[in-house]
Amino acid sequence: MINRLVENIKKTGAPIVVGLDPMLNYIPKQVQENAFEEFGETLEGAAEAVWQFNKEIVDKTCDLIPAVKPQIAMYEQFGLPGLAAFKKTADYCQEKGLVVIGDIKRGDIGSTSAAYAAGHIGKVQVGSKSYIPFGEDFITVNPYLGSDGINPFLKVCKEEKKGMFILVKTSNPSSGEFQDRLIDGRPLYELVGEKVAAWGEEAMGESYSYVGAVVGATYPEMGKTLRKIMPKAYILVPGYGAQGGKGKDLVHFFNEDGLGAIVNSSRGIIAAYKQEKYAKFGPEHFGDAARAAVEDMVSDIKGALETR
Question: Residue ranges of the alpha helices (H) in the chain?
Answer without folding.
Answer: 2-12, 29-39, 43-61, 73-76, 79-95, 110-121, 147-160, 176-179, 188-201, 220-229, 267-270, 286-306
